[in-house]
Amino acid sequence: MRVLLASAEAAPFAKVGGLADVVGSLPAALCRHGLDARVIIPGYGFIDHLQYQVEPLLSFEFHHRMGANQVDVYSCQFDGITFYLLQSPPYFGLEGDVYSHWTWDMERFIYFNQALMACLSQMVDERRWFPDVVHVNDWHTSLLPFLIRDHGADERWLKLATVISIHNIAYQGKDAGGFLWQAGIHGRRHPDLAQLGLTDNLLAIGIAYSDMISTVSPRYATEIQYPYAGYELAPLIGRRADDLRGILNGLDVDRWDPSRDPTLVANFNADDFASFRSLNKGHLQSSSHLPVRSETPLVGIVSRLAAQKGFDLALPALRSLLAARDMQLVVLGTGEANLEYAFWQLDQDFGDRARAFLQFDGALAQQIYAGCDIFLMPSHYEPCGIGQMMAMRYGALPLVRETGGLADTVINYDNADGEVGTGFVFHWQEPQAVEGTLNWALDVYLKRPDAWRRMQERGMRTDFGWTKSAGEYIELYERACASAYVE
Known about the structure:
This protein is α/β, with parallel strands linked by helices. The chain has 2 domains: 2-250 and 467-486, Rossmann fold; 273-461, Glycogen Phosphorylase B (Rossmann fold, 3-Layer(aba) Sandwich), CATH 3.40.50. The protein has helices at 18-32, 102-126, 144-149, 155-158, 177-182, 191-196, 202-209, 218-223, 227-230, 234-239, 273-287, 311-324, 337-349, 362-371, 387-393, 404-409, 431-447, 449-461, 467-486, and strands at 2-6, 36-42, 55-64, 67-78, 81-87, 133-137, 161-166, 212-215, 244-246, 298-302, 328-332, 354-357, 374-377, 397-401, 424-426. α11 packs across α14 (362-371) and α12 runs parallel beside α13.
């Protein structure tokens, strides 16, 4: 089976969030199952062609309603996977960031969908490769299922199956009607879209026209069928519930391995972490200019600083506990100005206990996972989340809210000998819930070290690899192909 994953992001070429990690690592797992899985993303101007040995593949002139543009498609191999980079200035090829302002992003990602269709035609004619399944991701590529169904009577297009993955339903590509008209894309006549007033919503178009739908955790697949998590798309999701699957994201466990991670001062695994992991904690404390004290519990945060992540709940709790208890905090992230300022203020007010690194630093992120005792992730909602899985793999115990993928991956401590549990879980969206649960975790760290180590080991031995999830995606692709063939 040939599968083409289309996305705005894919690690390591272009990464803003978890979408890039999934699209960058899932194809390798699919190939290990015998599929021919490839990836296409925009050929952003900041991608270093020399570093990744990117080579020209094909070029053509693409005629569309707004005129004609040169399209250059490049290819490279990374971890044994073929990646395609589509450049077409001014839409893609000159920029320094993945995303721009709303109006330009709407215009250029709609163009990317159209140019990708033309690219597929060119590839089958010149390269003799055509997918059986196109797997689109989030709103940026969600116009493709409609364009494929609207393509015409050519048998290869009629049998081309489509799958859409929803990584975060809060981002939908709303109010696209004017941009779609400008691009020459005619009305979407799907009855569900018309009835629900969603004909100008790009993510909704993808959901309505795809053969199958997935999202990134089983719990989130249930949550988005209700308005509190699915917003205005909840009724549409509900109507397609039989075609929806929640498939948990995986980790690239070969890449994210504390026994081989070169960013750590001491490598360790689930057998010897009790002897060597503390060296990473000491290094993190020292490099953060905090007192090096193994007995002091260290809380770590690695995150986008965004409202979704629940830091409005965590900040009052952290301020209260930093003032009252012997604990330390190390934060790494960038995002909304008010949250950056709030963490900077914690750094200033508790200089001997808290440090905020308001930046992106991949090596420091790994060192926080490997050095902190408690990894705080108090999200209001979290479709899947990678941070809590990274934390467990590196021997930290996550403290999370019971939502989405956090609920699917973190088992709450049994408040006893640690025979059950991989972390600490709270439910209510209140600062008091964070403070109470964090107090609980601090007490367990100080008073029940044997239970703590049992949970650490259990978390490190949990299999968060892609093998099981890749098998579930293959089943989804097979169902999509059967559905497309019937249609």
